[in-house]
Design brief:
about 170 residues; alpha+beta; 4-stranded antiparallel beta sheet; 4 strands; about 20% strand
Length: about 170
């Protein structure tokens, strides 16, 4: 009898905890939209902007008269083996993003296989030059990598990619 009662009791406690957790974590439904006459009134939820705060700007160049930019994270990671002799000694895994002119998102997605090929060629060349050895995350080393990726992209793709973003970088040694 006790062998049946304990599992049933644990089952009821687990089910109750699951239901309680689900009710507690459920999303709150959105509030009704404000009435017509309060549409221009400032929201009580949003903090008021500071008097000395700079105005919001769209992403663009520092001088403000350049084109707007989009930032796209490339879908898959790049895996670069580090080879010594005939043996793979480490793997470097990178996640890259690119800065492109606004409105070029579809063009980038259509050319993504070419972009990945160009980046992989440059990453392998960087690895063969010893760029991923030692302090591979130093500012100068990452700057060199970013510049070489940008130059390779401009050579192969023209003005599609304006800058390279190194989102993640990890080296796993064997």
């Amino acid at each position: 009898m006790l062998k049946i009662l304990i599992p049933l009791l644990l089952l009821m406690i687990g089910t109750g905890a699951g239901i309680g957790g689900g009710l507690y974590m459920r999303p709150v439904p959105p509030a009704d939209p404000p009435a017509e006459d309060t549409a221009d009134a400032p929201s009580m939820d949003a903090p008021a902007p500071a008097a000395d705060a700079p105005p919001e700007r769209k992403v663009g160049h520092e001088d403000g008269d350049g084109p707007e930019q989009d930032y796209i994270k490339l879908n898959n990671q790049f895996i670069v083996p580090l080879v010594e002799g005939e043996r793979v000694t480490s793997l470097v895994v990178l996640t890259l993003g690119v800065e492109i002119p606004s409105g070029q998102r579809e063009r980038l997605y259509m050319m993504e296989p070419k972009v990945r090929d160009v980046f992989l060629q440059e990453l392998f060349a960087h690895a063969n030059r010893g760029g991923f050895r030692g302090a591979f995350t130093s500012a100068s080393n990452l700057g060199n990598l970013r510049n070489s990726l940008r130059e390779a992209a401009r050579y192969a793709l023209g003005d599609l990619i304006t800058d390279i973003l190194i989102v993640d970088i990890v080296r796993q040694d064997n």
